[in-house]
Amino acid sequence: MNILIINCIASVINIFILYTISKILFKNENIQKILVILLGGFALYWMFFNPHFYGNIIGLTFALGAVLFTLFYLEKNNWLNLILSGILISIAILLKSNYNIFLCGIILILFLDIIKKWKLKNLLIIPIFLIGYLGIILGYNTILNYIDLDLPEGVPMISFVYMGMAEPTNLSAGWYNSSTIDIYREANYNNELAVEKTIDGITTRLQEFLQNPIDGLKYFGEKIGSTWLNPTFQTIFYSLPGTRYRWYPEYAHYLGYHETILSMVGGDLKQVEEFIFEIYQIIIFTFAGFGLFKLSKTINLNQAFLPIIFAGGFIFHIIWETKAIYVIQYYFLLLPFAAFGINYFYENILPKLFNILKKLTK
């Protein structure tokens, strides 16, 4: 149960950090009040996902910390914040490699800041940030070399690009399938040969999409829909006891004596939860989209930070293997913009609608 405790602590910290980030992005107390309500709703996702240790939650803590310290730098020009940001994002990546997308977002924002300020000393911004990042990565590799731990190459990373476009088997388009393992076995566990076979597979698949563009659009449409329009983002599924919990069987034993919890993860209450998550998702996507649209003409560099990372995650999972649970951290980043959208609607649109109704009822 130590994993559960770690995730619970990390998920609370994530909520606190995103709230702090939002206070930097939007100097409006009403937006923060709305965000608190939205964060309270999102806590249900963390509650269901906390029993599963997958690197997402604890990794997000360090990634959000990196974003926060980058914002501190943009606001205060204290270069120490860049080193701290580099350290935090490197730890996040060690916990979950997908947080490289946050790293790319940070570097892009720093690059845009260099262009915006355009001072000679600001050319040192990215190298200073990389001091913290490379320090942790080099330290990690040094430890591995010191203890003489020889890690096998394993399945080549490009295989996951092929998995993201392979013919679906038992799951949705672009979701996990055995294609990577099959190719690796066919290559007799030779990494270089596996890369060649994978590239051939990618080339063949791209040709099929070009020859049948409608099939290609349907494939990626299904892939995007199954990834982003799953209201629970698989969090309830990953809270179920099963073979993946064999390393702490007391979790399954505990659930066996609590009928209410069992109903929440696989019974009547689950249907209620799915309905709540669906309404919540509609609210977040609708008002975050509306909020970003209203911000589009006046958005500043700080406010563009989280949308850039979200866009990176969205594009990445069109190309890469996907799952709904892989994108929950990007969904989380939309909350401040949903709060902004709700507040804008309440302050600017709703009064106009009431005036129209008054005129119509006279």
Topology:
Layout: H1 2-25, H2 29-49, H3 56-76, H4 80-95, H5 100-117, H6 125-146, H7 159-163, H8 179-186, H9 191-211, H10 213-228, H11 250-255, H12 259-266, H13 268-295, H14 301-319, H15 328-333, H16 335-361
Helix content: over 70%
Assign an overall shape.
globular
Specify the biggest β-sheet. none
Count every helix, treating DSSP H or I runs of 4 or more residues as helices.
16
Task: Evaluate the radius of gyration.
Answer: 23 Å
Total strands: the figure is 0
Residue runs with pLDDT of under 50 for 5 or more positions: none
How much of the sequence is in beta strands? under 5%
Number of domains: 1
**Structure classification:** mainly alpha
Mean pLDDT comes to: 84
Distance between the terminal alpha carbons, to the nearest Å?
A: 63 Å
Helix and strand run: HHHHHHHHHHHHHHHH
Please tell me about this protein's structure:
This protein has helices at 2-25, 29-49, 56-76, 80-95, 100-117, 125-146, 159-163, 179-186, 191-211, 213-228, 250-255, 259-266, 268-295, 301-319, 328-333, 335-361. With 362 residues, the protein is mainly alpha-helical. It has one domain (2-361). The chain is globular, with a radius of gyration of 23 Å. The N and C termini lie far apart (63 Å).
In short:
73% of the residues lie in helices and 0% in strands.
Give a quick set of tags describing it.
mainly alpha, 362 residues
